Hints:
Bound molecules: nicotinamide-adenine-dinucleotide, glycine
Low-confidence stretches: none
Number of strands: 13
Structural class: alpha/beta
Strand order of the largest sheet: 1-2-9-6-5-3-4
Mean pLDDT: 96
CATH architecture of the largest domain: Up-down Bundle
Number of helices: 13
Distance between the termini: 44 Å
Order of helices and strands: EEHEHEHEHEHEEEHHHHHHHEEEEH
Largest sheet: 7 strands, mixed
Helix content: 40-55%
Strand content: 15-25%
Shape: globular
Radius of gyration: 20 Å
Amino acid sequence: MAEVNVDLQEHSYTIHIVAGSIDQAGELLRTLSLGNKVLIITDDNVGPLYADKLVNSLKAAGFTPHVLAVRPGEGSKSLVTANLVFTEAIKSGIDRNCAIIALGGGVIGDLAGFVAANYLRGVPFIQVPTTLLAQVDSSVGGKTAVNHELGKNLIGAFYQPRMVIIDPQTLQTLNDRELKAGIAEIIKYGVIADHEFFAYLEVNAMDLLARNPEVLTTVIGKCCQIKADIVARDERESSLRMILNFGHTIGHAIEGEGGYFEYNHGEGVAIGMHAAALISQSIGLCEQTQVTALTNLIAAFGLPLAAPGYHPNKLLSFLARDKKVLNGKINWILMDKIGHVTITNEVTEENITCALRQIT
Length: 360
Ligand code: NAD
Ligand code: GLY
């Protein structure tokens, strides 16, 4: 079994990465001091595939699980759906020691985490992520949120899970588009922290796309380790953690401009990483060869490099509303070479517009 520890003093926790771990969830959770009742939040796609497995494992370990399935998709990251979950928690008698378990992708993780952080001023929270994106990114690090009609992730809290249980076998039922969305975040880790991992991805691209179990487990473990190290050093994103947002500034603008359905999060990040690399090159931070290495890898996974037909000015107005704008300036995460990034606000509007023209 692969285990990664997230070292956050009294909020430390373990990420278990092993094929079939959903069937061991009850046993794993018995190592924490939890009440017997648990509330599993899932969605209507994931529930029919995996809720029974999780429920059976929990029952075998003496827990009494309740399951609530919400509608799949970003629309469920809302205060309205959160209220449904609060109601279910109250009705099923979830008390301060009882856990809320997220079984699903990043939408379910962010929603269930938001509820766990706020219900009774905070109850134990467990992540059982089932998309690649959630297994390599959103289930780790404690960012929880719901959306507001004026913007994404605007209402939320840092609230760490007590345990993350990753079963890479669940990825076998994920569709190709969602698999690739997770791969965009995986490429990000190579760029921000580890050129050897980037090279591993270049060599193993086809096996990763084919969902080779060994490659999946290696890749998930590596990404969780990189994220755990960053979060342990800067939990609240005061500085270092910002590097996890490489490609996200323009990525979010593309997601938003497309109404959050034309491009999913990972596709937005893929295009955003390309744009960030172009900006890096235009301010003299990195060589063309590094940009080409990145675009070749993004393309090798069949991820988009551009959003044709989008208007640079509209993307610019999205950027102005980005959460990462501090004192009127965006903190850009730019690449000096594969494996290393720099945080800077020394970027002109012309640099940005020029990159946006190349990716639209
Ligand atoms: P998602 O949760 O919407 O899942 C994508 C789709 O896959 C859904 O239709 C879901 O029902 C389905 N699905 C999930 N697991 C499946 C499986 N094993 N088999 C078949 N279908 C399955 O999307 P996502 O990409 O996982 O997450 C995106 C969300 O994550 C966004 O809201 C984003 O803001 C958030 N996010 C949060 C963080 C964080 O740090 N908290 C980081 C990155 C992204
Ligand atoms: N996904 C970015 C972060 O967790 O900080």
